[in-house]
Amino acid sequence: MTGAMLAMVGAALCAVVVLLLVLGERRPDGGWYAWLRDSVQAWRSDELAAAKLQPQGSAVRDTPLEDLFSLGAARDQPAYARPEELRDRLDQARQQARSLARR
User: In which residue ranges is the amino acid composition biased (Basic and acidic residues) (predicted)?
Assistant: First the structure.
């Protein structure tokens, strides 16, 4: 039980160290306090008022339901590879590797 608790505390400490390293690397120019202060001021001001936000047009087009469930165009090849095909491909790869190794 004690070992599990120590492992959990160790993992939490490691996570905190990694988070602090990432935050240190991504530190804004004015520091975190200035960034937080500016963010709160922008949030409270009319800068982010919902009335001023303009909805942007979507690039998504409507698709019929049948198109979502279609499998696409039919192919004239088998859906699965047979063991013989796999063996042939492996033999071919081995031969190419041997020919390259001889050069």
Answer: 82-92
